[in-house]
Amino acid sequence: MSERRTLISGNALGTSAMLFWAAGFPAAEVLLQNWSPLVVIVARLALAMAVMIPLWIWLEGPTKVRNAPWGKAMFVGGFGFGFGTYFLLVAQDLTDPVTVALVASCGPLVGALLEVHARTRRLTWSFCLGIGISILGGIIATNALAPAQLGLGAAFAVAATVLFTWASMATVREFPKLGKIGQTTITMTGALVMNSALLVGSISLGYVPSLATLPFNFELGGMLVIYAVISLCISQAMYIGSIGKLGVAVASVHMNIAPFYVMVIMMVLGAAWNWSQAAGAVIVALGVVLSQYKRASTTRPAPLTE
Fold first, then answer.
1. Is 133 part of any domain?
2. pLDDT tens per residue, range 88-145
3. Is residue 46 a part of any domain in this protein?
4. Among 61, 102, 123, 295, which is most buried by a count of CB atoms within 10 Å?
5. Structurally, how many domains does the chain consist of?
């Protein structure tokens, strides 16, 4: 019963995380039409941390926050989530949200390889079949894009997927004494520091216009709140919780249903129903079930220091 409850709660967290994450794609499209990718991501992280840090202090106390392993978090968050977030926005700026979601569908494969390398995952036929089916579902959900839509943008998306998957697994394993809010906040602070440094450097070199020249209105502010608070704060905390229960490979399988969630959100905004994305969502759901069939006990995360 305990194992079943863990599976149920882990999958519920993963499903909810991807639903909130998907809400950020339409919001990001609006922001990217007005701001450069670096400005978008720094504004997103700054607003998210303005919410998360006070919440973390309130939940766990200032002493625990002060004594947290900030140095290690700067590395995991800065290089993993920092560069990963920037590469993801560059990929979307060069392509579109569907292309990014297509490449991100390979996240479960990256997660499985990382877990096998860390010896926390034993491969079984059902797990491999489930991962393969989930990737197929992700491809179908994104309408099997033509090669002309790939290229440099897809390369950035691949790099972002690898960095995100590694950083997500490292967050759970490197900071086990912190709660989910603490794990999310400490690594995302590292991402904010990294991207802020990149933004300052880009402005100094003239690659990004001065922040004083950027347009800002009520619509952009609303999109930023959706992109920062809903699609990052809430989503990432749930996703980290899902990884803690299922492992990064299985938790990331839920990413492949994100195109369906994006479609549903776009339908609310006036877009049409897409049967390919609906079919892909069903196939991904089958992959989620198969990947956890008779799950071995070795799938639980283990400390990085062995």
1. no
2. 878 877 776 666 766 776 777 777 777 776 666 666 777 677 767 776 776 666 554 4
3. yes
4. 102
5. 1
